[in-house]
Design goal:
By secondary structure, the chain is an alpha+beta fold. Helix content is 51%, strand content 9%. The chain contains nine helices and six strands, in the order E-H-E-H-E-E-E-E-H-H-H-H-H-H-H. Bound molecules: glutathione. Glutathione (GSH) binds at residues 7, 17-19, 44, 57-58, 66, 68-70, 83-85. This is GST N-terminal domain-containing protein. InterPro entries: Glutathione-S-Trfase_C_sf, Glutathione_S-Trfase_N, GST_UstS-like_C, Thioredoxin-like_sf.
Length: 252
């Protein structure tokens, strides 16, 4: 059995974290049995060490190192793996179902830079999404998240990340749209019609995009203007994409 370690939110489905969603999509796609164990932010380092994760998986913008989720523990092999990309590689290597490869045709080498370029396109979302993300967490995680972000970004308070005026906010939101549109052009090159980057079956690149979209949907809510915007952008490409990913959204 595989255990997936994830950070809980106060939402009904609990799962919200973009990086952990990448892994959950992988597990659901490969139809591997697993269960989720919830870990609050301040407990991630201790839990990781307990599981035998040897080193931190993140270097922060201020240079500090941090342990992160997702982590998986696979009791079938006695292995713990941190970092969503490394977990995806581990899952393909350990459970190589030829019809369910996260990196079909050995594409890890080209999907890794895809994910980095996508994240770069989406960089403008950070200042908009991090402050409200905090409201979705349980109190211990919220306190810890807010305090560490204030430190990392050298702020007086978390809300200082937000644009100062409505006009500034609009400009920043337009940059998020622009970032997704750049990525939409990559998807449009697939002549098999999608909804995914390689056609009807998803792969790592799709789970990366899906993780971001899930994050936005969780933080702002399905009824929000933000989410309605996203679904309308790029001629409804993301609306179709989200429908396509739905069957991999089980939280167990
Ligand atoms: N490169 C890592 C990044 C993981 C990551 O940043 N996870 C966040 C949750 S979305 C985390 O655990 N952050 C802990 C922290 O910031 O202290 C991956 O893809 O797994």
């Amino acid at each position: 059995m595989i255990t997936l370690y994830d950070i809980p939110s106060r939402l009904a489905q609990k799962a919200w974290s973009p990086n952990v969603w990448k892994t959950r999509y992988c597990l659901n796609f490969k139809q591997l049995p697993y269960r989720t164990e919830w870990v609050e932010y301040p407990d991630i380092e201790l839990k990781s060490k307990e599981l035998g994760v040897r080193r931190p998986s993140l270097r922060r913008p201020n240079g500090a190192q941090a342990y992160t989720l997702p982590v998986i523990r696979d009791s079938n092999t006695g292995t713990s793996v941190a970092d969503s990309f490394k977990i995806a590689e581990y899952l393909d290597r350990t459970y190589p179902n030829p019809r369910k490869m996260i990196f079909p045709h050995n594409t890890a080498g080209i999907q890794a830079p895809f994910a980095r370029s996508f994240a770069a396109n989406m960089r403008p979302i950070m200042n908009l999404i991090i402050p409200p993300e905090c409201d979705m967490l349980n109190p211990r995680s919220a306190e810890w998240f807010s305090r560490t972000r204030v430190e990392i970004f050298g702020l007086a308070k978390l809300e200082d990340m937000l644009p100062k005026s409505a006009a500034d906010y609009k400009r920043e939101w337009a940059k998020v749209q622009d970032g997704l549109s750049k990525s939409a052009k990559w998807f449009a090159k697939n002549e098999r019609g999608g909804p995914f980057i390689m056609g009807p079956e998803p792969c790592w690149a799709d789970f990366v995009v899906g993780g971001y979209l899930m994050w936005m949907r969780c933080v702002w809510g399905e009824e929000s203007e933000h989410w309605r915007d996203v679904l309308s952008w790029d001629d409804g490409r993301w609306a179709k994409f989200v429908v396509g990913l739905k069957k991999y959204e089980n939280v167990v």
